[in-house]
C-alpha cells in the first residue's frame, strides 16, 4: 500500500523515460501522450498521468487514490484561473503602528 503522506508529485523529465516505459509495461498499457506528472513514494515511481488524464500505475500497489491526486493536480496546473498569493512582509513595530492607525 502506498503511504499517502509520503508522495512526491513532479513533472517528468527526459531522465524518467526508462522508468515510465517500465511502469507502462508493468501496467500492460501503452504510455499515454505527454507531458507527464509523476507520483513517487520512497523514490520509486508508482503512477503517472499524461496530458489527457490517462494514467499508468503500478498494478502491485493500491494506486487509485494516487491517480486521483495526480489528475486533480493536473487540472490545477491547466486551470487558466490560477490564484496568485501576494506575500506581505511583516515588519514588527512598523506593522503594528500601521494597524493601529487603520483601526482608529
The helix/strand series, from N terminus to C terminus, equals EHEEEHH
CATH superfamily label: Gcn5-related N-acetyltransferase (GNAT)
Number of strands: 4
Strand content: 15-25%
Could you characterize the architecture of this molecule?
- By secondary structure, the chain is of the alpha+beta class.
- It contains three helices and four strands; from the N terminus they run E-H-E-E-E-H-H.
- A four-stranded antiparallel β-sheet has the order 1-2-3-4.
- It is globular and about 45 Å long.
- The relative contact order is 0.17.
Summarize the structure.
With 104 residues, the chain is α+β, with helices and mostly antiparallel strands. 36% of the residues lie in helices and 18% in strands. The chain has a single domain, classed as Gcn5-related N-acetyltransferase (GNAT) (Aminopeptidase), CATH 3.40.630.30.
Amino acid at each position: 500500500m502506498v503511504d499517502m503522506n509520503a508522495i512526491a508529485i513532479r513533472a517528468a523529465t527526459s531522465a524518467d523515460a526508462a522508468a515510465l516505459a517500465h511502469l507502462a509495461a508493468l501496467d500492460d498499457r501503452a504510455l499515454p501522450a505527454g507531458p507527464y506528472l509523476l507520483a513517487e513514494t520512497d523514490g520509486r515511481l508508482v503512477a503517472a498521468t499524461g496530458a489527457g488524464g490517462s494514467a499508468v500505475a503500478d498494478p502491485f500497489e493500491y494506486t487509485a487514490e494516487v491517480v486521483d491526486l495526480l489528475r486533480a493536480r493536473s487540472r490545477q496546473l491547466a486551470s487558466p484561473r490560477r490564484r496568485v498569493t501576494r506575500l506581505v512582509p511583516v515588519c514588527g513595530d512598523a506593522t503594528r503602528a500601521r494597524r493601529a492607525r487603520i483601526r482608529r
